[in-house]
Amino acid sequence: xxxxxxxxxxxxxxxxxxxxxxxxxxxxxxxxxxxxxxxxxxxxxxxxxxxxxxxxxxxxxxxxxxxxxxxxxxxxxxxxxxxxxxxxxxxxxxxxxxxxxxxxxxxxxxxxxxxxxxxxxxxxxxxxxxxxxxxxxxxxxxxxxxxxxxxxxxxxxxxxxxxxxxxxxxxxxxxxxxxxxxxxxxxxxxxxxxxxxxxxx
Length: 201
Description:
Elements: H1 2-30, E1 37-43, E2 46-51, E3 54-62, H2 65-80, E4 96-100, E5 106-112, E6 130-135, E7 138-145, H3 151-167, E8 171-180, E9 193-200
Antiparallel strand pairs: 1-2, 2-7, 3-5, 3-6, 4-5, 4-8, 7-9, 8-9
């Protein structure tokens, strides 16, 4: 009898924990600012988007992709949490962006800065590893998917996106951009991941 009660308690506790995580994920993500864009066209989970200009904080990190994004995140988080010349806290936005640079095993990790800032008003970072840059309006082909950002999942979705671009006779510009929207405790099926490729139509 005690064993049955214990099993039921574990099941109910697990379900409650999952529901709390779902609620937290939804609440947090609904409050996070994201870059603005217009959807030009869509097909299943792929969209052609036109993004408005954005301001980015970027750091270049050496290492494998997963290691690099963790290291880059820590450096950029330190900047927005107040390690800047104005000692100002900058609101966290989504997504965290990652793109391989032209150098082998170098990854550029980026935070999107809140839209109220300009190059002139954004606090200057104290860490000279961080670059601030303004990106003009651009068009991207974007594929959206859930799950953990494992290499096999990323490659499979990248292949689908590149096949779509080829079928539409679009022209790729630069290397793929990986965009991750959720905090690490988000359940895999609730996660929003994207791969973006700049295009010329």
